[in-house]
Amino acid sequence: MNNPIKAIVINKEDNNYSASLSQLNENDLPDENTTINVLYSTLNYKDGLAITGKGPVVRTFPMVPGIDLVGTVTTSTSDEFKNGDHVILNGFGVGEKHWGGLAQKAALNSDWLIPLPAAISPKQAMQIGTAGYTAMLSVIALEKQGVKPDDGEILVTGANGGVGSFAIYLLSQLGYNVTAATGRVDQSEYLKELGASQIINRDELSNPGKPLQKERFAAAIDSVGSHTLANICASLKYGGVVTACGLAQGMDLPASVAPFILRGVSLIGIDSVMRPKTDRIEAWERLATLVKADYLDKISTEITLEQVIESAEQLMEGKIRGRVVVNCQ
Ligand code: NDP
Fold it and tell me: Can you give the residue ranges of the Enoyl reductase (ER) domain (predicted)?
């Protein structure tokens, strides 16, 4: 079989970086044990960096980008999956060092795949994508630390971002009292619709602050890093917990040990990319029960493979809000 496959392909020759919608053959696909008809992929910030060449995401060329995908297994030599199974992939270096989801077909290692939960559709899985999955991992981390809805305010930073908006939604679905920190306070109504009870301006957290501040938050989900994360640590209540998954403000962490040794606070790192399979399955099963279809439709738009390159430029220019789902068929 050697049917043509539409795919976004990134090349770099003599320092000329290019991305185009190309036609591949099945023989061109990597030598992996499972082949998938890709139903949907997404455009994450990382994909935008890869496609536009604005960040060093792609490690080998040529590369098919796309860190998330959902599709139907067509062939597999693994015992785990059979033809017709619906599977999800997030991360594992796919779209960076292994060919990814922005194509009609993909060949992947079955170890990277998990089953699509029965309660959600393929499109819904990509409306959720890495952003929702990372937010869910963060919420589960708070739960595992014993954070309860009646413990008090839970702070979510980067509130209008992919991870932040899902974190607000998931926490509110679970009955937590959520405070959203945002640079776009004009979006307060939207954040309240997602489930935030209080909105604060992110400027309150983004500048250098005292090592110990007034105890305010029972817990926090941070995707911003830098001074924001330092100020969160300093303003957690005694025994509070913060998860850190991102660096939207910066990679640095200009904090002191005071909150850890005087208030017993905990800082929990969240990585979604290399996360073990059991954690992935747990997170996706939880997402399938918590996320409602009307919320997903409200926060996402659908495009085709033909529109991916233009949309990636718009994403990098900050002109897109919410999740972009790519219909790959
Ligand atoms: P988005 O770009 O969608 O959102 C980031 C949000 O952060 C923005 O919407 C904005 O929210 C806020 N923000 C932007 N710049 C600043 C700044 N200078 N200071 C403070 N806040 C700022 O990204 P995602 O939500 O998809 O990802 C968030 C972070 O998490 C990224 O750094 C990403 O790389 C990381 N990430 C990590 C993962 C992991 O496995 N560890 C997985 C997924 C993402 P607002 O306008 O409301 O202020």
Answer: 14-326
